[in-house]
């Protein structure tokens, strides 16, 4: 009996959020070591399908760095990074495209096998992601930064209740394909669609005052404070580009950004459909 009451309490807590986010766009980015050739673990996809069934409009943007590196080695190329960004020559771009396409197909297939409607897209298709070559003190090759997003196809898909699954390549004015950071692509898509939420699934609980102490987690933090935490080096290394992508999204019109630990079962549902949440939400 007590167990039944607990379950009903969960449903009652979720109900106002289901109503609030009905037909709202949620952009979810998932990448890193968790994304392999086999795709994404089913728990994350179950959450996305639940959101879709509840009337929300989820969009999934994925990376696949470790699998890309593995495939590059198969082709005799040694992966090289400068300040966390992959050095990408013309051969590497081709391999990246192939690796991400394999992952994308697996994710789409899994979503369909679980009863959802899904459609895979590369950012270079239909000029979805337009880029320019990234400039800096080092030449990274075919690495781009986003200049514009054409949401025509994505809007059509979500209006038809189809989950877009996007991988982060872009097309330059020169007609070349460029490798693009998945966090940046997801953030730019969220801004272009005026999304309700931008969610980054990662391997940490969120933003913490002490990264070794989960009890110091910020449940809610303003974008300006996130910038100060970066300057104070409380947010450092690999969390900096994620935090900056969230700040950009908020200042670009997205209502809230979230950083969650993808290893927590049903992290998306716990963050979006409960009062307290389980990660860090970033607000204006």
Please tell me about this protein's structure.
By secondary structure, the protein is an alpha/beta fold. The chain has a single domain, classed as Carbamate kinase. The protein is 39% helix and 22% strand. The chain has an eight-stranded mixed sheet, with helices on both faces. It has a four-stranded mixed sheet with strand order 7-6-9-10, sandwiched between helices. Helix 6 packs parallel to helix 8. The N terminus is likely disordered.
Strand order of the largest sheet: 5-8-2-1-11-13-14-12
Major sheet description: 8 strands, mixed
* Gross morphology: globular
Q: Compute the average pLDDT.
A: 91
CATH fold-level assignment = Carbamate kinase
Number of domains: 1
CATH class category name: Alpha Beta
Instruction: State the secondary-structure class.
Output: alpha/beta
Assigned CATH architecture: 3-Layer(aba) Sandwich
Low confidence ranges:
1-5
How many helices does DSSP assign? 9
Give me the strand/helix succession: HEHEHEEHEEEHEEEHEEHHEHE
């Amino acid at each position: 009996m007590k167990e039944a009451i607990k379950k009903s309490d969960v449903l009652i807590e979720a109900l106002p959020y289901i109503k609030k986010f009905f037909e709202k766009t949620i952009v979810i980015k998932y990448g890193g070591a968790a994304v392999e050739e086999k795709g994404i673990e089913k728990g994350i996809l179950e959450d996305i399908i639940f959101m879709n069934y509840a009337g929300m409009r989820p969009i999934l943007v994925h990376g696949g760095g470790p699998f890309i590196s593995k495939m590059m080695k198969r082709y005799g190329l040694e992966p090289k990074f400068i300040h966390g960004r992959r050095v990408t020559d013309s051969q590497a771009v081709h391999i990246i495209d192939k690796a991400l396409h394999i992952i994308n197909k697996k994710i789409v297939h899994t979503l369909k096998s679980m009863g959802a409607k899904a459609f895979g897209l590369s950012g270079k298709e239909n000029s979805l992601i337009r880029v320019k070559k990234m400039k800096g003190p080092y030449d990274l090759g075919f690495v781009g930064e986003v200049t514009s997003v054409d949401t025509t196809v994505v809007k059509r898909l979500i209006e038809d209740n189809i989950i877009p699954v996007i991988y982060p390549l872009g097309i330059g004015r020169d007609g070349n394909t460029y490798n693009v950071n998945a966090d940046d692509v997801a953030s730019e898509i969220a801004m272009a669609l005026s999304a309700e939420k931008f969610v980054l699934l990662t391997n940490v609980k969120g933003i913490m005052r002490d990264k070794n102490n989960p009890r110091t987690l910020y449940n809610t933090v303003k974008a300006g404070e996130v910038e100060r935490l970066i300057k104070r080096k409380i947010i450092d290394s690999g969390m900096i580009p994620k935090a900056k992508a969230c700040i950009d999204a908020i200042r670009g019109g997205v209502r809230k950004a979230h950083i969650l630990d993808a290893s927590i079962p049903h992290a998306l549902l716990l963050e979006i459909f409960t009062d307290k949440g389980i990660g860090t939400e970033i607000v204006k």
